[in-house]
Design brief:
By secondary structure, the chain is α/β, with parallel strands linked by helices. Helix 4 packs across helix 5. The protein is globular and about 50 Å long. The strands form two sheets. It has a seven-stranded mixed β-sheet with strand order 3-5-4-6-7-8-9, sandwiched between helices. A two-stranded antiparallel sheet has the order 1-2. Helices cover about 35% and strands about 15% of the residues.
């Protein structure tokens, strides 16, 4: 249905069992003149907050002329704590923030935030979607994490938060002190949402058939290469690869390379309509 000039996609469950409202943190970097460039909304993965994009990518996107926004999902960063949050609630948060932006936005999701974005795209007609080192669920990602970090991953199977290791998330090029600082800022996701990563269930098609870009690293110790390839194939393409980078690409030593590739791709999008 249309309301106030914006398209809203409603489902029966939205009426029968609405997602409880929650206060959401949104940080922004807006250029003085954006022209016709679309706003970019960065969506962090489980455990991260808007700070993960504010560190480098937010201001960098604005310097290149894109209005840039980063949000924290409920229970993350400076957003309201909601211990029983679900994947559906996270997708609701993204749709609500995207719908509040001045123009049709590009949704960029990192890690499990890519799964959230894929669900939000079924309800929000995005200008485009970008999945960065996407964690889209399933046994393959769990097996990779058990292999690289068994003692940090096992507690998550019983509802506790994942205890990450620096070499899982970052390349050796990131100074150890910087990596430890980032690790200290990581939190956890809602227990129900965390369980849903194992079996997220089938998603719905994206509204409006937006252009999609998938990127990651063949050296990612969270998302195995096979899972990265499957994610790209789901959207009819191949992943854009950055060898030598870790999972947290927006914080790693070579953070400029992936964000510049994303913005270069956005500059080449065909005009709306």
């Amino acid at each position: 249905m249309s309301q106030g000039g914006r398209l809203r996609i409603m489902r029966g469950k939205d009426w029968a069992d609405p997602v409880r409202p929650a206060r959401r943190e949104v940080r922004e970097a807006v250029p003085e003149t954006a022209g016709d460039r679309p706003p970019v909304l960065f969506v962090p993965g489980y455990g991260y907050g808007a700070w993960a994009f504010e560190e480098h990518w937010l201001e960098h996107a604005a310097q290149r002329g894109f209005p840039a926004y980063a949000m924290s999902l409920r229970g993350h960063g400076g957003s309201e704590a909601v211990p029983d949050a679900t994947l559906r609630a996270y997708a609701h948060d993204v749709v609500q923030v995207a719908a509040s932006l001045p123009r049709q936005a590009v949704l960029v999701g990192h890690g499990a935030g890519a799964l959230v974005v894929s669900r939000a795209l079924a309800r929000y007609p995005a200008r485009a979607g970008v999945l960065v080192a996407p964690v889209l669920g399933g046994a393959g990602v769990l097996a990779a994490n058990l292999r690289h970090n068994p003692f940090g991953t096992l507690p998550a199977l019983f509802g506790a938060r994942v205890r990450w290791r620096a070499r899982q998330l970052f390349s050796a090029g990131l100074p150890a002190e910087t990596a430890r600082g980032y690790l200290a800022r990581l939190g956890g996701a809602g227990g129900r949402a965390q369980w849903q990563l194992l079996r997220p269930g089938p998603g719905e098609p994206a509204v409006g058939d937006p252009r999609m870009l998938v990127l990651g690293s063949p050296d990612d110790r969270v998302v195995p290469a096979a899972a990265l390839n499957r994610a790209a194939q789901r959207y009819g393409g191949a992943p854009l690869l950055f060898p030598g980078m870790g999972h947290a690409m927006m914080l790693d030593a070579r953070w400029r390379e992936p964000i510049d590739a994303i913005l270069d791709w956005l500059e080449k999008l065909p005009p709306r309509g």
